Amino acid sequence: MAPSAVPDIATVADLQTALAAGKPLLLYFWATWCEPCKQMDAVVAQLAADLPGLSAMRVEAEVVDEVTLKYDVTTVPYFVFIKGGEVVDRVEGADAPALTAKATALARGGSAATTSAPAAKAAAPAAAAPAPESKDAVFGRIKYILDTWPVVLFMKGDAGTPRCGFSGRVVEALRKLGVTSCKTVDILADEPIRQGLKEYSNWPTFPQLYVKSELVGGCDIVTEMAGSGDLEALLREKLGADFAAVSAAAVAKHGGAPSPAAAPAPAAAPAAPPAPSEAPDAVRARIKDLLSGPQPVMLFMKGNPETPRCGFSRKVVEALQSENLQFGTFDILGDEAIRQGLKEYSNWPTYPQVYVRGELLGGCDIVLEMKAAGELGSTVNEMLHRMDVA
């Protein structure tokens, strides 16, 4: 994310200084990988400029663990409103109108000088915020995408850097059939598409693969079809014998995601290298040993189940426990080499990370989404069974 005009809280001492100033405070929790945070950064900067009665500060949620845990933050973007040292309101998600309305109300109550002209000025961001996209407009965008590209994958991330194990498996299934170039849509960067497609397709989860505008299915169906040869048969039927070239030609003509082979190096590359005393190969060997240990479900987290060191880790522990799933854990805060090495190993930049028999299930957002859909326990058990009989 580009440098922000909003100051950052990097330590608990920074937070204490901000609270001691006595001004109403807006804390904005964000993460580098979250696309909606880039949009909300500009909204927060505008609010900070327009509301002199309010202090606004950013907190990188997965870096400043103590502050994130203190305010029970488990998702980003997330906003906490504080007055007199007490939390008075919250906003979850990239909801610019709600954020503007609540920030304006807090600023008005924070200083008598904001009761007239400044208050009217502060309302400007709300007026300028884009209206929510209508259902017809979202469906129109979905239909355009499906009509333009013969093979479309709605996924988390892109073909070069999938952001969940399920998306990665569908990309791999297509790649093995020679479809190294197709249209991918990152639903993490487009919330209207993410929500609208569930109704459009009557299919509640992601990824979703379409061929010639028709839904093929999600990860389980695609991987099963790939294994039986039915996926190749479907592609031949819909696109012809040279289906890989047809898909590539459409991407070349209309634009789309790069193929995995042509994609840039994984995002984990800029991460700090493992400790100098331990070679990368040795770190990878230790990771493999951890993933092949006695517990088939493994959670790499901050802290441990009894004392999680971040809200994201705590939420995942609670989700796994609620499904009566047995799992092992590893505290990445106690091993910097594993903490950095696992990012490259999994091509997943954040923590926590959940694995089933050494295969990445996903992070906090994936686990909580599956839990909310009633699919977490069944998916883990299906993965365990599939790997047992493989």
TrEMBL record:
One of its GO terms (molecular function) is metal ion binding. GO terms for biological process: intracellular iron ion homeostasis. Belongs to the glutaredoxin family. CGFS subfamily. Pfam families: Glutaredoxin (PF00462), Thioredoxin (PF00085). Residues 257-280 are annotated as: Disordered. Residues 1-108 form the Thioredoxin domain. Residues 257-270 have a biased composition (Low complexity). The keyword Ribonucleoprotein does not apply. InterPro entries: Glutaredoxin (IPR002109), GRX_PICOT-like (IPR033658), Monothiol_GRX-rel (IPR004480), Thioredoxin-like_sf (IPR036249), Thioredoxin_CS (IPR017937), Thioredoxin_domain (IPR013766). Gene3D superfamilies: Glutaredoxin. Keywords: Iron, Iron-sulfur, Metal-binding. It comes from Edaphochlamys debaryana. CDD domains: GRX_PICOT_like (cd03028), TRX_PICOT (cd02984). The keyword Acyltransferase does not apply. PANTHER family: GLUTAREDOXIN FAMILY MEMBER (PTHR10293), GLUTAREDOXIN-3 (PTHR10293:SF73). GO terms for cellular component: cytosol; nucleus. This is Thioredoxin domain-containing protein.
